[in-house]
Batch of 2 targets.
Target 1
Amino acid sequence: MNHPDVLERLRSVLGRGLITDPKALKPYETDGITAIREVPWLVALPDSEAQIEAVLAVCREHGVPVVARGAGTGLSGGARPVADGLVLGLSRLNQILEIDLENAVARVQPGVRNLAITEAAAAHGLYYAPDPSSQIACSIGGNVAENSGGVHCLKYGLTVHNVLGVKLLCIDGQVLQLGGKLMDSPGYDLLALTMGSEGMLGIVTEVTVKLLPTPPCKRVVLAAFSEIAGAADAVGAIIAEGLIPAGLEMMDGLAIQAAEDFVHAGYPTDAAAILICELDGVAAEVESDLALVSRILKAQGAFNIRVATTVEEQERLWLGRKAAFPAVGRISPDYYCMDGTIPRAKLAEVLASIGQLSEQYGLAVANVFHAGDGNLHPLILYDSNQAGQLAGAEEMGGRILELCVAAGGTVTGEHGVGVEKLDQMCVQFGSAELEQMHRLKAAFDPQGLLNPGKAVPTLTRCSELGGMHVHNARLPFPNLPRF
Amino acid sequence: MNHPDVLERLRSVLGRGLITDPKALKPYETDGITAIREVPWLVALPDSEAQIEAVLAVCREHGVPVVARGAGTGLSGGARPVADGLVLGLSRLNQILEIDLENAVARVQPGVRNLAITEAAAAHGLYYAPDPSSQIACSIGGNVAENSGGVHCLKYGLTVHNVLGVKLLCIDGQVLQLGGKLMDSPGYDLLALTMGSEGMLGIVTEVTVKLLPTPPCKRVVLAAFSEIAGAADAVGAIIAEGLIPAGLEMMDGLAIQAAEDFVHAGYPTDAAAILICELDGVAAEVESDLALVSRILKAQGAFNIRVATTVEEQERLWLGRKAAFPAVGRISPDYYCMDGTIPRAKLAEVLASIGQLSEQYGLAVANVFHAGDGNLHPLILYDSNQAGQLAGAEEMGGRILELCVAAGGTVTGEHGVGVEKLDQMCVQFGSAELEQMHRLKAAFDPQGLLNPGKAVPTLTRCSELGGMHVHNARLPFPNLPRF
């Protein structure tokens, strides 16, 4: 595509904030899921809302697709560019506009890093709860786009539960003020609709987030199991007891070994699975919960239960979990990180099925995940230099997501749909839900200029896959072709 | 309206569940806000999803408006019938379908009473958190329609934060499965969109709610202040300290006196305002929070701080608050309960302005409200037998809602918009937001058959009011005409 007038108008708006040089465009071809890539026509790096408005006006008038991008850490290809489109990078809008203590909220620009909010609030004893693994780098705008989670979302919720307001710039130039500093807002909940909408309904130019008091006390316990099923069942038993830990993570044998070899966290490498449980609150509450969790873990057959007694030991227990992904990267040339969610009651069953898929495809799987909320992250190990392994990993990943749906779960936990999971949306939803999503998209963006081709598959795509709609644990197509 | 074929088809679907007799229709003419009334053409009382589907099909084919109704306890006229329409009463769908302990959720039909969920879960040490005052009677379907709150929503959130899934029957006959038992769901968040949508997007036929562990310990403290502003500032000080009480309620002098005369709760009738603060959790946490709250209350100038030492005393402290509305009903022939929300920081200022309005209109106001989340419930006392007082109360109520918007707040806290607050929606939102809401409605219900005329005003209505859109504390029209 080449529109001299588009370029000229954008240049006059953006100056050096417009990138057209192919070498400079290259870093924008992919987000965190690097197997999915496309070099965009243009990249715009506005530094004000006024510039964003002007860029959208040009794109609207000339029919140029717009792909919003935060920090580029997304894991489902939500910010993958389109070849004839513009990437709207929001990293320069990185100001914390207000920390309002009386209302316990922060008002920030979309390019502010997740962790920067907590850093700014920490002096006041407050923090922003959702903490994706990428929190040091990922932006709050990207968190809104993907409805991001993190280790602590079991207790504190996803992005949708922690954002009180956004300013949404629509493709028609209208500015919507959605929500604010308060819990409720009248009318249809356009605010919640914006969460997880992957930049397809509008451009978020401001976000107001809830700040929570920093818990005065944290304790961490690690439990080792000789069977994966034992660890899985312990997760359900903890929740069924009425406990909501701040975090409840699980790692299987392969992940344990990889992490231990990498960071020497002191993990029991003879375990088939470990659970790491963090409890937070006031000291007395945490201690009584810790005692109860320890009793449950023991009753569920944990052969080794270790409670960190110092802050250093706590950090060491977490270190292995936090380093698990790069640790797996050390033992395999490539890995593919999946993201799906299942009811806790099905953990043992689904993990066993993933094991069977692993054998069937001849690809090892390491499981490192948010067990408490049933949010699986199977890492499929493969070697892209071995013919067929990438395709095998992708196919197997799709099968895992379909397993999640069949178990009564969903094809995403916290990474969004992007382009990665378009086919599985055909499994998750029937034509009624998907048609309704398309009608809703058209009500915001009738030309379909905002992030085209993401998150919600066309019905044609779904029907080409050979069938649609699973509810009540019926799996429709065992041999899906993959993208 | 009279369509013999409509009646015949509905009769064959519903049998005795179709009401056409004018005397039997009369009880359905209003919901909890009895000043807003209209006798419907028909009332349908289906007892199954299949019947609802069949009723919707008839209405769709014949263009009959459909107003869904739960228990009829709503306070904004959301279930007010339309004269040529059908009221779809959902009270017969009152089954608790499942209590799933491992996932800590309940799956229920829409007609199940709010409190019935907690009663069913109590044996397992669990409960459903949102607790509107009407919880003994109101239905979960109605809670979804209005995004209901309650005393404890400060800590535990509104309906939108506690519902994980709904089954939504659309007017075109499609059934949408939105969410489920899990926290996240891919695609646009149609689930959250359903919350507070007042039956205008579809009919909710099943609801899956989160269950929380019953807190093992509760403590209640009452503090008396000689100035309303002192109590208001104490609310902000408690939150700014990082505490999130389970409930933090405020009553002003008139409400205190009325409640005390009615139930003899032992309230200090010499106080200009009292705060009632409930803390919950494990005992040690609650005790340390209680000590901190007491210190803050004292530092903020409370002249009387009373901590309940027995369960009976706790119940007595709550009794006055819970009986406050009927207590006000004893001292005034009529009262009009408003519902708006403001940032906590503006409590003192807005309460002072409400006092000025009270003088200006010559109508007393009693304030009894959820101070912790800034959710005001001014009760305007009037006598409908005195010429002009009803109109005065309605006009003054509108002014109060506009004050809320001007203070950076919203025109609803937990009662929804219904028909009551249509004019104030013109103050809350600009044409951009309202247009977008109408586009969204059309994407669900292009014929506009579902609960027409509620929640989102037409732009014509707004422009007839003489102006639109306040942001940043500018009040556009001081002398609005009222409905």
Target 2
Amino acid sequence: MKNILLLGAGLSASTLIKYLLEHSTSENWQLHVVDQDLQMVASKLGAHPNAFAHSFNALDTEARKPYIEQADLVISMLPAIYHVGVAQDCIALKKNLITPSYISADMRALDASAKAAGIVIMNEIGVDPGIDHMSAMKIIHQIQEEGTKLLSFKSYCGGLIAPVSDTNKWHYKFTWNPRNVVLAGQGAAAIYKEAGALKYLPYHRLFQQTEFINVPNFGQFEAYANRNSISYLETYGLQDLPTIIRGTLRIPPYCAAWNALIQLGLTEDTYTIKNDGTFTPRMLLNTFIPFKDQRSVEQKLAAFLGENADLLPLFEEIGLFDANYIFKSEEASPAQYLQELLEKAWKLGPTDNDMLVMYHEFIYEKAGAKFKIESSMVAIGQDQRFTAMSDTVGLPVAIAAKLILNQTIQQKGVTLPVYKEIYQPILSELEQYGITFNEHETQI
Amino acid sequence: MKNILLLGAGLSASTLIKYLLEHSTSENWQLHVVDQDLQMVASKLGAHPNAFAHSFNALDTEARKPYIEQADLVISMLPAIYHVGVAQDCIALKKNLITPSYISADMRALDASAKAAGIVIMNEIGVDPGIDHMSAMKIIHQIQEEGTKLLSFKSYCGGLIAPVSDTNKWHYKFTWNPRNVVLAGQGAAAIYKEAGALKYLPYHRLFQQTEFINVPNFGQFEAYANRNSISYLETYGLQDLPTIIRGTLRIPPYCAAWNALIQLGLTEDTYTIKNDGTFTPRMLLNTFIPFKDQRSVEQKLAAFLGENADLLPLFEEIGLFDANYIFKSEEASPAQYLQELLEKAWKLGPTDNDMLVMYHEFIYEKAGAKFKIESSMVAIGQDQRFTAMSDTVGLPVAIAAKLILNQTIQQKGVTLPVYKEIYQPILSELEQYGITFNEHETQI
């Protein structure tokens, strides 16, 4: 029997565990799952004969060592910062490792030792990063094999809510860490490449300088640029590509309204405002809009919004005009007060389903003519456990586990799924689970 | 003879030294000046019989101790962070101290020990802070003594260039630390109070939400809000004042053009861009403007500016379109590259004179009617040594020194010039040096 050790059984591990258990008898696997929350693990494993739940601190090197020793493959679903520690253990004990996270500089530095130990450390094999790499590289390789010239690659992904659960004016609910959503894009400017020139886009223009995208059967989305699109040029071996941009998808008019929150100053997180026990959302809003004698907060905000005054109902919906609700925080940044409001307004309901949308656009040149390939994928969650996020992160990890254990994947060292021998079998099996890309080519 | 010890003889000490030497015979003073740059000190002191130049590290507690011991009064013109150390020495040795800088929390904590030592530590007695406090408090006290109610206080100050030296389209040259000018307003939002409500103004709106001000005989200025106007409520004993705002003055269209630099992202300082040895201002600008097929950088910037496209010549003047100049920095933030350009474009010429403009506006209510008092002062530099900055910082410090030594100022402890017994004689003597306020009252 082959022994799989899964470290961390949180939200996005449900589908992963389901797949591993469903295949455990035919593949002859034992699955050992470690999480601090034994009850949650037990509920995810059920009474499956090949499943074993363990509750100890997976971050404790000594505690986990005997479990890694017995394993043929380790899957780390721990927070990304812990992967390097696990990788060092796996190298010492010569065990294969899978993580869905980005390869850090420290992880990359382990490549030679992993090869020397004869193991593979497979990273970036969730959805974003993961499915995005695989689905993009499939088309990039096709274009390269035809001897044509790639001119532009744009790629977008968004964790959203399913149309059936889309019940608010922002078309958004939290399916992901709310703080990350509120602070999205803060820090350094976004950087991408357009027509051969590097482009920097500062935070205060990020939700303003957007692109609109039509996804077949799912309508219009709007994308804001991700922090660093340039690093993908190396990952994909496309150093000379004139245009690359990666972005995050929202449904209009989310970006325009979020831009207004940025322009007001409500997403700032570098200073705090005291709450004397009477601080309301209406007061918070009023501190950020210019004074106009005799006008109500609504009227002042409408004046501030100018031609975007039709967004007013979106601000009302999240409770920004509320003069009765008292903030719970005693002292918080504008972003934290805003998050307090949004967590109420954008809470995922017990029957809500999430949705994951991915869209790539490739432009290439062939015999003087230009062609565009669009490739899109939409995944919709089944319920609160088997969410689109859990499916799209868990299935590629699970399939990679199978392919490593049955030696279909032969690569060693620190790697990621940009190679045909890795992405081809994974994409092909993902299709059986309904994770399919709709491809469409046109001459432009 | 009374002995005055001056620590630091940099740019803004010229007028201070001149005053002290001119009064040294009649007042029976000896002046000891310490600075690392002995040649500069010597040139400022000339061959005056009451002047003594010393060159040692004024930050060295042991080295300065014997000099403080011999002094009746110490004046610290060192960088602000060193004042507390000097103050501790002065308390130990029971010597009076003057600094032109803001009272830090650490300085404030020395109040009781200074009183116990029987000394005064006079702070915030340059121009801003200094002359602003004194000229404002004079009118605030007048209004309060008349039993009328102050409703609003707005106060603005700007270090600019004299009309005769105003030779560029920005109407600005560096008379002050360039880096501070480029980064002005970054960090936390500006905070002020308007009609009883706190107002926060984020950086990306700071040069957009400005006020226009007419200064008699000097035309129109434009003000952007200073970081924290609220702390002045306590300093001035005006906790219940509904409106207070303090700002920095520029000459139009500086603020509109600077706002465009902010919106572009050119003032950002949180990340760096590499210069491969070919990086030009034109390339820098191009990284921040949205791509438009076939358009020149000028055309793209004009499109970005929209209705402010008439600002284009201002950007040309600072060399932003230059495709020949190669930046000297090998890796720098956008703000640092911008500063490299501005230091060339806004360099003070050898015959240029600076100008300092201060403007206060008070609104008060009396028997149901509202009145406005405007009070303004303009100082123009005589030459590169006796600048407006040197005059307006140095003279109040020098006069305060005289008033402390001749015991006109009797206050002890850590203080600042918001008291009538301090500001009245100083303002009165400043008038003899042409630093006069033009006051004007109207019913509104």
